[in-house]
Amino acid sequence: MAMKVYLSGEIHTDWREQIIQGSADLDVTFSSPVTDHAASDDCGVAILGPETDKYWHDHKGAMVNAIRTRKAIQEADIVVVRFGEKYKQWNAAFDAGYAAALGKSLIILHGAEHQHALKEVDAAALAVAENPKAVADILRYVLTQKLPG
């Protein structure tokens, strides 16, 4: 059984690489948003032309990025959404809601410090993990029926 997994959320740590490495022997295809922060922020004006108002600069970027994000979430079997410690990932919360509305299997990834703040997001998930290894273990179990070693 092959799976498509979309990895949404914070871009400041290597959590994606940890999940991908932990799942290297599985039949999983991963996708993610653009993780180059500057490219993600500036794609709209780089492609569609400059803006003097920061609102429209950001709006153009958000719309161009949404083309990739929507397609990837729609095509995913599982959506993993990571909430990091340092920044508020409003885009990640939106991705979790979009995935839930589409009926996607949703795994939320965050530390214990966010349990209260993310209780509604967590309630929409099929699993809430505190580390990337747990996500890789979930994928392994789903695909192979094998428990961690």
The helix/strand class is: alpha/beta
- Overall shape: globular
Q: How many beta strands in the DSSP annotation?
A: 5
The fraction of residues assigned to DSSP E strands is 15-25%
Strand order of the largest sheet: 2-1-3-4-5
Helix-strand topology string = EHEHHEHEHEH
C-alpha-based Rg, rounded? 16 Å
Main sheet: strands, sense, barrel: 5 strands, parallel
Provide the CATH architecture of one domain: 3-Layer(aba) Sandwich
Residues in helix, %: 40-55%
Span between termini: 21 Å
Q: Give the CATH topology of one domain.
A: Rossmann fold
What features would you describe in this structure?
The chain is an alpha/beta fold and 149 residues long. The chain has a domain at 3-35 and 75-144: Rossmann fold. It has helices spanning 15-22, 37-48, 54-75, 90-101, 119-124, 132-144, and strands at residues 3-9, 28-31, 78-82, 105-109, 127-129. Strand 4 (105-109), helix 5 (119-124) and strand 5 (127-129) form a beta-alpha-beta unit. The mean pLDDT is 96.
Task: Give the helix/strand layout.
Blueprint lengths: L2 E7 L5 H8 L5 E4 L5 H12 L5 H22 L2 E5 L7 H12 L3 E5 L9 H6 L2 E3 L2 H13 L5
Parallel strand pairs: 1-2, 1-3, 3-4, 4-5
Keywords:
single chain, 149 residues, alpha/beta, Rossmann fold, five-stranded parallel β-sheet, 5 strands
Q: How is this structure best summarized?
A:
The protein contains six helices and five strands. It is α/β, with parallel strands linked by helices and 149 residues long.
